[in-house]
# Entry
Amino acid sequence: MTLSPADGGKAARRLAADAFTQVATALSRGAEGVAMLPCALLRHVPIALLHHRIGRHDAAVVEAWLARLPEAGASAPERLWAHYLFSLEADDPASQAVAHWLSRHRDRLPARLQEFSRTYAVLDPGRAPVRMAAALLEGDRFIRDLEGLGFTLGRLQGSALMVSILGGIGALLRNGAPASHPVRAVHAVLAPHPRDAFHRAQVGEELRRHALAAFIEGFVAWQRRADPGDISPVQVADLLVTVNRDPRISPGRWQGVVPEATIDLLERWPRKFSPPRLAELGGRHEAGMAGRN
# Structure
């Protein structure tokens, strides 16, 4: 019997779902489960472990999987590289272990991946996000380089790497790095869907909160340096409430993440300067009241 394209697609999705279930079950059983995993399923481990975080915090599971990677064939380093890149979390032991494994097998990576890795310190998870963040603040080279590898901004935007980079941008701005148009740079990498950028990503909660705090504090610091009199904070205020919602409407997104003084400042900025933006961001009632006053 010949499958139609539609039936073939359904069959492929069922096979992928079955493979994921088997891998997830093996990972949940610890290193012993990884040891018993059929070789044909090793290629599915990064999706479950790095992206869905099943067993990610168990060092024994990560090491057992990495020890078996040579069984996955000569292309295993290339396939793993992309999974590692988009799941990169600087202080995460799993990211560090995978980076170490890839470093030992870097000669088996295609030349284009080796070049990208050198340019952006990809195999050094502690440096890579800041290196990429600095490149974004300087222009569009990082985006062009990433797309040159065949990756889309859509894939980046929902990833742990995106959150890591945004945190890196915040850290650079907070520390006084020169940046002429940081708001424009962030919109370029998050377009066309900047809303809830931190909360849409597959990332550990600790990194999400840490990166979000760095991002907010960094942009506030940059705005205060550029505009000490708060004459025109509209662009920064709009960016921050776009990626994390308005603190008056969604206070849980802000409280415990940044100091109350920062929240108070952000609450003053949009209310004073950009009431129309509140409607777009969900504060329709409040914006309507402001318009009638």
